[in-house]
Amino acid sequence: MKSRLNWLAFATTLVLVGCAAHTALAPLDPTHPASPDAPEAPMPEPAMVLHQSAQSESPPSPHQGHVRIGGAMNPSTGHSEYTCPMHGDVRQPGPGRCPKCGMTLVPADDGEGEDQR
């Protein structure tokens, strides 16, 4: 019990000494950034990333440079014909579905791009 009282007295003394101690802060140099008397830092130049000039050109098209391969023929030529991939005898002048199996019709290839063996 006596040792417990000694530890309690020691801890109380440490707390009181720690709370009573007053440390003076060293004065800051007026040029130190944390000093209230320090001059303001210069503002950085604004970025020109979002700046639009009056003479800027229109942005390029998102599809510029893309090559069109395949696909439906131009309907204005009147040459587009669609067929079923499973039933070659089903042909239609426009897109749609096969009446036999319900598959989506694809543009008919009239043998222009096939390999000749």
Please supply descriptive tags for the structure shown above.
16% helix; 1 helix; three-stranded antiparallel beta sheet; disordered C terminus
Characterization of the model:
Helix content is 16%, strand content 5%. It starts with a helix and ends in a 10-residue tail after the last strand. It has a domain at 80-109. The relative contact order is 0.08. The chain contains 1 helix and 3 strands. Strand 1 and strand 2 (91-92) form a beta hairpin. The protein is mainly alpha-helical and 117 residues long. A 3-stranded antiparallel sheet has the order 2-1-3, with no helix packed on it.
Produce a short descriptive summary.
16% of the residues lie in helices and 5% in strands. With 117 residues, the protein is mainly alpha-helical.
